[in-house]
Amino acid sequence: MDSVETFRALAAVMAVRQAEFAALGFCDLDLEVVVESDPAFAVLLRFRDYGCEVVEVAADELPAADCRLEGGAEVWEEIRDDVVAHGGATGRRTLSSLVLVGGRLRLRSDDTMGADRFFRYAETMQRFFDGLAALRAEPDAGLPFGPEVSSKGLK
Amino acid sequence: MMDIAVGSYGEVPDHPAQRTMAPRGADIDEGMPDMGYIVNSKSEVWAENVAELYEEAVSRQWSATRDIPWGELRELPSDIEHAVCQMCTMLTEVEMIAADLPAKWMWRINHDFLETKMFLSTQIVDEARHAEVFRKRALANGGGLLRARRDGEFLLREILQAKTFTQASALLHLLGEGMVLDLFRQGELIAPTDVEKRMFRLVMQDEARHVAFGTLHLRYAIDHDPDIAEEIHEALDEGEQVLGSFGAQPTTNTAMATLLAGGVERIEEDGFPMSEKLSAKMLTSYLARCERAGVSRLDRTKLPLDQLGIDASTLGVA
Q1: Would you call A115 and B186 a contact, using CB atoms and an 8 Å cutoff?
Q2: Cβ contact (<8 Å) for A26 and B61?
Q3: pLDDT tens digits, residue range A93-123?
Q4: What does the DSSP 8-state code read for residue B317?
């Protein structure tokens, strides 16, 4: 999860599934994702309408965003593994559940309106990360898309 | 609505000269009848994000029939099904207050504040859908509607009888729906199947919009009329007191603790302690929103913050 390519691939999955995301409604959110690894990794996800722009950022110079999801590499791997195994997040490994209990994944914002904005788009956010199921489990495979999705569209 | 709010069409008067349904920006005949609006000051109803929230609400509508995977419901252990049905009974009861209250005020609000009235209309539809989805869930899997408690009704009456729209908004959007938003977050956590997971994520989105409106409405009201802060505090003083009784009722607490523990067997060891922690988190979120709205409750609230383990320094963590 600590590579910008992974998030660009997720954005590509979102683009392929634009009709599905359009049915959820437009989204307007700047979300930072921070993976607390060594070195720390951070990426800015700019959700606009039914798509997402991915911007690589320095973990020690985080830009202004509505809110930030941060957690250790192990919780992000757990999220990915759960999604890949089940086709989507299950049980207490959804984003909303993880930020509510346990403290391993934290939703932070300098402005409580920013954190609440995350919940205004809760379903879109979960579907975006559920896109991990469409990516290859092997990060070195070279192709961002897994068996379900190709760059030409949904099979 | 944001793109067309240009020139005179986008100018929302602080105190409209007319009390008619004539569209803001239109040429208006002489001798128009007075519609009898009693809310005629912008600061009484406005929020800077209201047009954005209206567009978002329209874009993100969903269907309690089409968008919930009802076909994936499965038979649950009786204690879990009972707890889900008790939660859904309570939620069906409280959700419609957030439709009744805007409906009570809308026809009293000057038509020049059209964006607010349009947003409140979406809230009414949202709440109808929430009542629908929780009622359907209670009845769809063999459990049914369970007990409605009088404590809940006292809270609803307190909200419904607020004397001004701003006090009503403080009680409904900030206190009531703020708490319910966090309750929906808990619902997503403890959902026993994907049916409830989806249900709670979707209602969470709607509720967060309503809270966003209320938070920035109160901010706007106080920025333009600082004296109104005391009125808001007085409403919240009363509301928090009634909420305390509502929160202490055993029926819903036990249901939530059962779901948090994954069943009644570990309710004492896991369920109730976890429920207490989440209640503290819920109140922390509420206090953070109060700060944002400009009505700091930290030195005013009678809620036992120390006893609840609430640390004011954690207000920035959702």
Answers
A1: no
A2: no
A3: 999 999 999 899 999 998 999 999 999 999 9
A4: B
Cα torsion B281, B243, B177, A129: sign: positive
Is residue A71 situated within a structural domain? yes
CA distance A112 to chain B (A): 6
User: Complex ipTM above 0.90?
Assistant: yes
Measured in angstroms, the CA of A66 and the nearest CA of chain B are apart by 12
Q: Which of B105, B99, B104 is nearest to B123 (CA)?
A: B99
CATH number at A139 reads: 3.30.1050.10
Three-state SS letters, B109-152: ECHHHHHHHHHHHHHHHHHHHHHHHHHHHHHHCCCCCCCCCHHH
Give the structural domain span for A124: 4-147
Q: How far apart are CA A85 and CA B28, in angstroms?
A: 63
Cβ-based contacts of A67 with chain B (< 8 Å): 318
Coil vs helix vs strand at B231: helix
This prediction's pTM: 0.93
Interface of B with A in 169-188 (CB under 8 A): 181, 185-186, 188
Of B189, B209, B212, the CB nearest to A92: B189
Those residues with Cβ within 8 angstroms of residue A38's Cβ, 6 or more apart along the chain or in another chain: none
* Residues B89-127: tens digit of each pLDDT: 999 999 999 999 999 999 999 999 999 999 999 999 999
Domains of chain B: residue spans and CATH: 49-70+77-317 (1.10.620.20)
The verdict on a CB contact (< 8 Å) between B60 and A122 is no
User: Cα separation of B271 and B260, whole Å?
Assistant: 5
Torsion from C-alpha of A148, A150, A152, A154, nearest 10 degrees: 10
* Cα separation, B130 vs B57, whole angstroms: 14
Quick check: is A155 in a domain?
Answer: no
